Amino acid sequence: MMEVYLDNSATTKCLPEVAALMTRILCEDYGNPSSMHRKGVEGEKYVRYAKEVIARCMKVQEKEILFTSGGTESDNIALIGGAYANCRAGRHIITTRIEHPAVLQTCAYLEEQGFAVTYLPVDANGVIRLADLEKAMTKNTILVSIMHTNNEVGAVQPIEQAGELIKRMNPNTLFHVDAVQGFGKFKIYPKRMHIDLLSVSAHKIHGPKGVGFLYISEKAKVRPIIYGGGQQRGMRSGTENVPGIAGMARAVEEIFADFDSKIDYLYSIKERFVKGVSAIDGIRLNGPAGREGAPHVVSVSIQGVRSEVMLHALEDKGIYVSAGSACSSNRPSVSATLKAIGVEKQYLDSTLRFSFSLYTTEAEIDYTVKCMGELIPMLRHYTRQ
Amino acid sequence: MYRSFLIKYAEIGVKGKNRYLFEDRLCDQIRYALTRCEGTFEVTKSQGRIYVNSLSEFDYEETIENLKTVFGVTGICPVVHVEDEGFEKLCQDVIGYIDRVYPDKNFTFKVEARRARKNYPKNSMEINCDIGEALLDAFPALRVDVHRPDVMLRIEVREKIYIYSTVIPGPGGLPIGTNGKGMLLLSGGIDSPVAGYMIAKRGVRIDAVYFSAPPYTSERATQKVLDLARTVSRYSGPISLHIINFTDIQLYIYDQCPHDELTIIMRRYMMRIAEEIAKKSGCMGLITGESIGQVASQTMQSLMATNDVCTLPVYRPLIGFDKQEIVEISEKIDTYETSIQPYEDCCTIFVAKHPVTKPNLNVIRAHERNLDERIDELVRTALETDEVVEIVYR
What is the ipTM of this complex? Predict the structure, then answer.
């Protein structure tokens, strides 16, 4: 049976060369970058090189890259560290209703700590309106956090315009962007886009799990939230995850080589899938179509078939997809993002997310569409009445 | 300080000439539970008592926790041994014991000595009085109460002298292996693991059957049932869990029978299949977590309709329990947290909005005739594709 992995927004397979590099570092070049001897210097070299690669692809300085354990930690440092470092200037934060829980739950924590948070609504495509952002900004706003690409429906936010607006209204307000889904799919240049803080995770771009980074503009004031031995200039103590960091850098190099044609390929895969499923009865696509949305995420609602059942039926055919957002999908609850973009009640529990990678083939897409065409009528027949 | 445990057992003490069988099973079960603990132990039976002696370093808390999973144990008494070096020395040892175990001395006590070694110079009564006096002298805040003491201090004179005063309650029941084996219908909900626990507590070995319905139920739902079986097996000993793919049967019933009777007819087939496996694996009864009136399929009419297909007895230990009482036991045996994970089980996926609550047996039987064409073959396939997982708690 064909195995088709279409859950690349949840995680991606690690590239073999990344795994090989990491194995070498784990077993041979295992020195601690803080050690003074040669073995330590060797470890440090990997970390330096990784900084170089990552800084170059975003046109930022190497010292502006902070290595973390992944997207969630990056979001936590940006929000908690950013809020506390600037709380004397005000205690107001702005974010959106469709953020990842790593942002929403951190904001909920900050609300408990006495910060006020405004949650911006989105339109039917899952995109914020700049007018709402403008209205929400006050002189007390110290931080705005907007995700680059939504993980559930692939909506892409007007980051550059938002950045301009924020800085025009208050140059001291920090602008954080959760780019866990957007990095490696779009060209993101923090300086041009007025981004102060940017969160990225390695395992969404064929790197290893458990590692990511936070871009922190040299101008941004952020307080550490983890204390200890003072590694990474005290911003995040703890021995650097050298194999993870080096593996991530290797994955970044790979994705940015011949970037445009890779993205064109992803969009062609998305189009092929959209065209195929659109021919099936009772299907509704959520989020922006074509190049307005992300190249790798398609949200599909299937009338009369519960997403959990459809997911397992596809699994039976070797096709792996996600119901709602995978990070929260073992606790089936109604998706806040789908609600926020106005998906009708009857579809909320019937929505699947298909997410592609550069290694998804046309044959896999065709097989998936064919299986869906066969399964949906059968599954519609057997429903709870 | 403690080197051994005296194991108390109540009910098996009265089993007449079979008594040694029960005691031997209990020793076996205690040894089995102790294999999960750090250290080596010796379990001995002498003069109507069971002792667990540690032969090495051991973890007190861990040992107690595991002894508490052995059915048949009503109490666990941590015991201190001392050498017989004269009565004066014994008084000092007892004073030291009381001092360490009870930092606050404001309580009443009674000494109860037992002189198993009859050549000891003092008789039991004398030991009681003299130790009591020594304690009162040492700790003036202590008071004697021979009727309802706060602390019952027991002294047993054998080769060595044993001192103990605390009884940690055990689960009670009868040792596993003193009765037959039962087939538990395990669903993944709160009730069925508790039902399995309750029957196992009467000394019954447990096997289990779970009905999965892919793609309507997920692999995580199966994992949840494996986790529950594992927790139950902590008490019941190893469980053979049969996983039956029920999808085709369920869909066929869906196609052929009235929708509001789906659940009842489905449950009749579950009972038939469970009974088939039960008979093959030497089980003497089915075990379910049903409780009268809890849901539509557990009214007396519904229970009668499902019971109708069984020839083996169906044990329903929760039949008179309220939900809250069942929840309390599930929390105690640590299945609750697993049971409430939100994975759908096959009983709920096609449940009708208004299922029948008072099914008429004749009507149900008549509608089941609609299944005649293919049902036997589907049941046979389900039985043939039975996947068996051996569950052992380590």
Answer: 0.79
